[in-house]
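Reviewers of the previous submission asked for a worked example of the structure-prediction workflow described in the proposal, so we include one complete record here. The input consisted solely of the amino acid sequence. No template or homolog information was supplied to the procedure at any stage.
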Amino acid sequence: MTSNRRTALITGASSGIGKELASNFARDGYDVILVARSESRLQLLAGELHARYGVAATAIVADLESANGASELFNEVKRRGLFVNALANNAGYGCFGEFRDADLERELAMMQLNMNTVVILTRLFLPEIISARGKIMNTCSTAAFQPGPSMAVYYATKAFVLSFSEAIAAELEDTGVTVTAFCPGPTASGFQDKANMQDSALVKNRKLPAAEDVAGRGYRAMLRGRRVYIPGIKNWLMALSVRFMPRRFVTRISKSLSRPV
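From that input alone, the workflow returned the following structure tokens.
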């Protein structure tokens, strides 16, 4: 099945970076499929985007932390007869605190959302994205570039997404499909509240960049086909500097930057 309309599916679209990515797609004339767990927020956003840009905006409620959530979402998209040209795997969250004190079920649910859902949705939608010579954006983080004491599992999930994204980008070189690993630093997006990391040195008493600005930069990088994009010179320097430092030293620095204060 093909369509003359371009359609982008964005997960985690109800707030923060995902909401702003959806706005960027709609502004460029993409119809949008908005996915999250909050039906009221999705419906409100869908109405706003349709009214402002004249695009079709479809809201689909999905629990992507569940084992079957991603495949159920794919089936629902197909049931509605929608064809996806661009996929933004943006949904994800973190858990702040030492691993020995972690809620294991919450950590495992985070792994399902941050990693498994990205893999499943990418694989299921890939045939139609290839046929459209479309685009994939996977939201990673500057956390992908080093271990993260106080958020050990979250940092590891983002390292997985970065590696996965770069690998499939290379595999898809001759298809016309581009894959962008989008790696923002701390952003004013609501992420910190869900992660309970308001007291982390990474964010406490810091003015964080707005989700609108960060998402706009990531979106433009995706359009250019950038494989890895880190917005902000400080984030870029920090991410690249770890290549030249001993791993133990990198981890020590990461620990000091994310400690509770």
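The chain has nine helices and seven strands. We consider this example representative of the routine output the project will generate in years two and three.
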